[in-house]
Design goal:
It is a lipid-anchor. It contains 15 helices and 13 strands. The chain is α/β, with parallel strands linked by helices.
Length: 414
């Protein structure tokens, strides 16, 4: 026979289980959804900061940050029209709040004194760091620490480096979007349309690079009042975790070819002073190395690219094998030129391996890598003393719907 006290206790426990709720549950209407964050150094206290940094008793790595949070204003998303010029107006879909402090947690807590909704970072799309913060000693890693430790935040948030200050990037007013952070997030994903866009780098990848002391790159972003431009790259040295400089747009395209990250885009070739444009459909690269002498190792990149002719101003018969071979060679030389410009910048000037050669040695020559990994692109810097070359091959798979173009002289066009 079942004990009545046992049944009573079981029923009470079951009722408590069914009626209990999460102890930390927050109603969705009370959440302050943050979709974008920009991190700068405060401009108003620059002189004070300089004095503090030079003080002998200042703790190493301590910085004061100016952080801008972009909150979603749900009412603005459903409004028929969006008022411009006054952030936080009745029809605005976002609200930017900026605050400064010695730590990101302090800044996040300070926002509770100014906003009815406490910051909630689970839907953070973009984290934008200023050029100045990225170059300062320890500041970049310190700025990321809060976001890496927050259990609510997804590690798939995109990280970018602003040319100049980061705050103005979140203050743009894009014409075709209501949320600047969502607009920036979408632009950064257009890597299949333009090879000068660096593939997105997530917060989790940044953490991995910081922990492993791997040199790495992050997308560069610039802005004006109406729009942003995501092109170029910021180069970080893996030992110091500081930014050492920017790569331009063509140099970034060359880097994408060298690191096997080209997803699409276009190439231009000039043949007899006439322009031909080539749409990239696929690209790959291989590395061969001569490692017999670690003081002067030699690496050769072999890049293969395939695509179609999308536009041309050069009158010629595109079914001719000789004509296609000439055009393919010109396109290949263009890839080699961009790649060599990139190699010259990161190899000779920055002396920082963001070309993937350290990873290649670790995978293909593990015993050698153990000998030189602590002196690869710092210390003795075997990377800087190596030789690097590149060879490219282009295959035109299609010339479009027409095979020949109009024959004309330049004088006739003019």
């Amino acid at each position: 026979m079942i004990d009545r006290r046992f049944v009573r206790t079981a029923l009470i426990g079951l009722c408590a289980f069914l009626t209990s709720g999460c102890w930390d549950q927050v109603p969705i209407e009370e959440r302050g959804f943050v979709i974008g964050v920009a991190i700068d150094f405060p401009r108003s206290s620059a002189a004070e900061e300089t004095a503090e940094k030079e003080a002998p008793d200042r703790p190493e790595g301590r910085w004061r940050f100016l952080v801008t949070h972009q909150f979603v204003v749900p009412g603005g998303l459903v409004s028929g029209s969006q008022q411009r010029g006054v952030q936080g107006s009745a029809n605005e879909a976002f609200l930017n709040l900026a605050s400064e402090g010695d730590s990101l947690l302090e800044i996040s807590s300070e926002l509770a004194t100014r906003s009815s909704r406490f910051p909630f970072y689970q839907h953070l799309k973009v984290l934008i760091i200023s050029e100045e913060v990225a170059k300062a000693n320890h500041a970049f890693a310190d700025a990321l620490d809060f976001f890496l430790r927050d259990p609510e935040l997804r590690r798939s948030s995109k990280v970018m480096i602003a040319k100049g200050d980061a705050r103005p990037v979140l203050e743009i007013s894009p014409i075709n979007e209501k949320l600047p952070a969502m607009y920036i997030n979408a632009v950064a994903e257009n890597i299949q349309k333009n090879a000068r866009i660096l593939p997105e780098i997530w917060l989790g990848e940044c953490h991995e690079n910081l922990m492993n002391e791997h040199s790495f790159v992050l997308p560069r972003i610039t802005s004006n009042e109406k729009e942003v431009k995501v092109a170029g790259a910021a180069v970080f040295n893996g030992k110091s975790n500081r930014m050492v400089g920017f790569l331009g747009e063509e140099e970034t395209e060359g880097l994408n070819f060298l690191t096997d990250r080209v997803k699409g885009g276009m190439l231009k070739a000039v043949l007899d002073r006439e322009l031909v444009t080539f749409n990239i459909e696929s690209a790959s690269r291989k590395i061969k190395a001569d490692t017999r002498h670690k003081e002067r190792m030699r690496f050769v990149y072999t890049i293969t690219c395939e695509g179609v002719i999308d536009e041309t101003f050069k009158p010629m018969n595109y079914l001719s094998k000789d004509a296609l071979k000439t055009l393919q060679d010109h396109l290949a030389k263009e890839i080699e030129r961009m790649a060599r410009d990139t190699i010259r910048k990161v190899h000779k000037q920055m002396k920082t391996d963001v070309l993937g050669l350290g990873t290649y040695l670790k995978q293909e020559h593990p015993h050698l890598w153990k000998q030189l990994k602590h002196d690869w692109d710092y210390g003795r810097n075997y990377f800087a003393s190596s030789e690097i070359d590149v060879k490219a091959t282009v295959y035109i798979r299609n010339v479009g719907e027409i095979n020949t173009t109009e024959t004309r002289s330049r004088n006739e066009v003019r």
